[in-house]
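To make this tangible, this section ends with a sequence with its structure tokens:
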Amino acid sequence: MTATILNEYVLGDMVARYLLDEESGMVGLILLPLNKQSIAFSPKNYKVESLVQLKLTGDIYDEAYAMGMTMRNSETVRCLRYESQSVKEENKRKIVETLLESARGYRVIHRLMWLENTPYVRIQCKFENTGSESLKLEMFESFSLSGISPYLEGDGHECMYLHRMRSVWSQEGRHEAIPIEDLQLEPAWAPHAVRCERFGQAGSMPVNKFFPFGALEDRKNHIFWGAQIAHNASWQMEIYRKNDGISMSGGLADRELGHWMKVVKAGESFETPQAIVTVAHTDSFAVFTERLTRSALESLECVPESEKEFVILLLTVAGIRNITFRGILAWEIMKFQRNYFQRDWRRQWMRFVKQV
């Protein structure tokens, strides 16, 4: 790999490392555990892959066998060049913005946001049409990490696992951990053929088949990388490989998976939903995923003053005290106090039952 470290940012117990390939102008991103930052990386046959992933209609796909499998590393991405990076801090939040621009009349702003004392980052991208004609996006993902795992020599044979949560009605949240080799994600003997496991969901049921989540685990060094997509419609995750490094990306489902396209007129822009991303040095899947789900607590800080003591919602299927009407189920909502586990939640519940 011929790349230099563009910048590094310490974000709690994580480090965001930006890599620059000066020859191609491409910028890559990887998150590292802070306590593993200084460990020497193992040798790999690997090239920097862009931290933004998108494709315009009509542009060329990636190399051999990518068609129909993935839109990553398209001609749209290969035409982008690094322009600048800026950092600002506001309201206890650090924001790193990386600007990539193409001479063809478009640019992408990659935004990484970290709130003080949180174990994750939020990432989203913004596409701007700076040309004179409309452009049509057929793929635009929220985040992309590459070079995984930097702590394993070569392709890390039999050390990497993909974690995801399967879901169907009445069987939601089935955890599966799959060796990378079982998904045929080993690099080819001639490293030009693309391998990619793209999964997700099309439609308005975001946990139909899979949860919008994915994680990679380096079992030898006990490190997890993972993300969840903050989007309540069609989404996708991709585990991609062409050489020794594995890349992970995700966001909106593309045209091939989710029948999605977006026309961006001259002078206009389009922004992806956020991805919540983290890394952890642990051998516990539960500890790792808790780092991601903790992001939901942020929304509790933005409620109206009158509702700050009522942050937990309980949905109960109608049927209590004859509130089922001719087979139609009604839903009753009750707001418990924030610390109801420690206080009088039983009394509050009985009061609710008597009311209905």
